[in-house]
Write a structure and sequence with these properties.
Number of strands: 10
Low-confidence stretches: 1-24, 469-474, 551-561, 573-592
Helix content: 55-70%
Number of helices: 28
Structural class: alpha/beta
Shape: elongated
Largest sheet: 4 strands, mixed
Length: about 625
């Protein structure tokens, strides 16, 4: 018996059986069962850690220079970048919903963070990170993560291309070794990326040839080697050679005059926590609406990129990530990073791809990479002061190229020119204005292009005439919430979205069905996934109009209906039985039954959030619900 009980440790009912035993046997068997289960769980965790050890080490090593590069490009110090990478990767690995995402400083956020820093200063970054956690929490509570799919791939790729363009050409100054060029402010607006590029190129005569040559060699090496042998993390040797060159230059053995991290930020020291502080220039920042408005684009991109990266990882690995848990991981990680003085991060596509290529099978690889990053930063961070900024520029340009899915772009060019044009439109708008504006205008254009789907909605019409087709059994099995006292039905099924954009089309179709026949019209909500209050109100008015103008006595000619009224003014119908005897049946049983509503589940009632619409139909006897389904919400009087 003991062996049988132990083998059933996965069955929850086992514990119910234990409760029926006497206390001594129950405690004994539960103890044996738990001990074996814990040992098995520990064994599985140990195995998963070993399986992901290599990927975690590789990602952790690559993460150190990438965190430094992303932090420098975002307008803050390398120490803050490393600090952010350590906490974000570890917390995200513990609580995230993707096995492959590694959360941390990311290229997709550089342009937005740099714009934020140029206005509020680097001291404001932790507070922006905390606001990202708040927005992510709201997204998690209201389950908004699923709506990432509303942005089509063409718009997403156009947005990514605009961000990649900004990153690539935003590195001109470091690639050419130019002296610092001040950024112009025009009120609350920053100069565009095109203005920045033009300004930097206008100072090309001041470029440093050693810096530019180092950039070309490093960038070319990263592009070539990553294509020929993609499984090797080539960033590590490129950065190592860059640090060596910078160190030799600092000793004076060769005079190259590299502009290095040390010359820009001074000596680097490892930090795991920096107390956040309000910027001195903006003591009332947290009471300024503009601060929160500037946080929204950062949070939006962080959430969007995190989910897009997870989706791409799923496509490569044939897995399925948990959307809500991934947002939870981002929420927790950004909350901890903000408290520890870091800045907003997200899942970087190149880092996630490297994690997959390195053999990751579980999100433990992200936590392992953070531990590796912690050890490397503690021992090696001071060495990075010798790293030339031109090598950082090569890393940033390489990361920006890797952000773009060129296979997807090529496919659109060859097979879907409409979406390719939409991609280009999103990209151009993003460059001329802002990437966030680009993605929303791109989505608007997409809706306009494919507006026929919204304006000409799908619907399904099924006719049940028991006298001719004998469909009574089929009717009861498929439409159990329709009364069986009548024999003729026209089932009108709404399919998909029912909203203010398409309700008029549905109204015309329904009215035409109810106009010239004596069938009962059944409006089925079974396949409706989204609706709104406006469409329900218009639908209610249509139902009332049909009931008032179209009664079930439409078979009687209009000019003869006065002859069928009784003393109360009610229309009566002569029913002929099989024995040819005549008798009068009052129309009361058919009143308010020209149109019925069915297919409304408990979930749909909650989603509708419009009890008045349902109560109105119920009072008229037109609402039929399955057993156990009830209207929720108070009735207004």
């Amino acid at each position: 018996m003991d062996e049988g009980l132990i083998n059933s440790n996965s069955n929850q009912n086992t514990f119910v059986k234990f409760k029926r035993m006497d206390s001594i046997d129950r405690e004994k068997h539960i103890s044996v069962l738990k001990e074996k289960h814990i040992k098995k769980e520990k064994k599985e965790i140990k195995l998963k850690i070993l399986e992901n050890l290599k990927a975690g080490i590789v990602v952790g090593i690559v993460n150190l220079p990438m965190c430094i590069a992303f932090a420098s490009a975002s307008g803050t110090t390398p120490e803050i970048g490393v600090l952010s990478g350590i906490w974000a990767g570890f917390i995200g690995g513990l609580f995230g919903g993707s096995y492959y995402n590694v959360i941390g400083p990311a290229g997709a956020l550089i342009a937005f963070l740099y714009k934020f820093v140029s206005r509020w200063g680097p001291d404001a970054l932790p507070f922006c990170c905390l606001m990202t956690a708040v927005f992510s929490a709201l997204c998690m509570v209201f389950k908004l993560g699923k709506y990432v799919d509303i942005f089509p791939s063409s718009v997403n790729e156009g947005f990514t291309l605009a961000v990649a363009f900004s990153i690539f050409f935003g590195q001109i100054s470091n690639a050419l070794g130019l002296p610092p060029i001040p950024v112009e402010h025009h009120g609350d607006h920053e100069e565009s990326i095109l203005t920045t590029i033009a300004k930097q190129l206008s100072h090309a005569d001041q470029m440093s040839k050693p810096d530019f040559l180092t950039f070309l060699v490093a960038f070319g090496a990263l592009m070539y080697l990553s294509k020929t042998k993609p499984h090797i993390p080539w960033i590590i040797p490129v950065v190592s050679v860059g640090i060596l060159l910078g160190w030799i230059d600092s000793l004076g053995y060769i005079t190259l005059g590299y502009k290095t991290i040390g010359k820009k930020f001074g000596d680097l020291s490892f930090k795991i926590f920096v107390m956040p502080k309000i910027p001195e220039n903006y003591p009332y920042m947290l009471f300024t609406p503009d601060f929160y408005m500037d946080c929204i684009p950062v949070a939006f991109v962080a959430i969007l990129e995190c989910l897009i990266s997870s989706k791409i990882a799923d496509q490569v690995t044939k897995t399925k990530f948990n959307v809500e848990r991934e947002i939870k991981g981002l929420t927790y990680s950004m909350g901890v990073v903000g408290i520890c003085g870091g800045f907003t991060g997200t899942a970087a596509l190149p880092r996630t791809a490297l994690n997959i290529k390195s053999g990751a099978t579980h999100k433990y690889s992200s936590a392992i990479s953070s531990i590796v990053l912690l050890g490397l930063a503690f021992f090696c961070l001071p060495l990075f002061k010798f790293l030339p900024l031109s090598v950082i520029a090569s890393m940033m340009c390489f990361a920006s190229v890797k952000m773009v899915n060129f296979e997807e772009v090529e496919m659109m060019w060859n097979e879907d020119m409409t979406n390719f044009r939409l991609l280009i439109a999103t990209f151009v708008i993003g460059i001329l204005t802002d990437a966030i504006i680009g993605i929303f205008i791109g989505y608007l254009i997409y809706q306009i292009i494919y507006s026929d789907t919204s304006l000409n909605p799908y619907s399904e019409v099924i006719v049940y005439d028991d006298a001719e087709t004998s469909q009574t059994s089929n009717l009861s099995s498929n439409f159990c919430d329709i009364p069986s006292d009548q024999k003729k039905y026209i089932i009108y099924r709404f399919v998909g979205t029912l909203n203010f954009m398409n309700i008029e089309v549905h109204k015309e179709r329904i009215f035409s069905l109810a106009k010239d026949n004596d069938f009962t019209i059944v409006l089925s909500f079974r396949y409706v996934n989204v609706t709104d209050k406006i469409s329900l109100e218009l639908l209610k008015k249509l139902i009332d109009q049909i009931e008032n103008e179209q009664t079930a006595t439409s078979a009687i000619p209009v000019n003869m209906r006065d002859d069928f009224k009784d003393e109360n003014g009610d229309i009566v119908v002569v029913k002929i039985d099989d024995d040819d005897e005549h008798h009068v049946q009052k129309q009361e049983t058919l009143k308010g039954r020209k149109i019925l509503i069915s297919g409304i589940t408990q979930e749909k009632i909650i989603a509708m959030n419009d009890p008045e619409f349902l109560y109105h139909l119920e009072e008229k006897g037109q609402l039929y619900l399955s057993p156990g389904v009830k209207i929720v919400g108070s009735k207004k009087h």
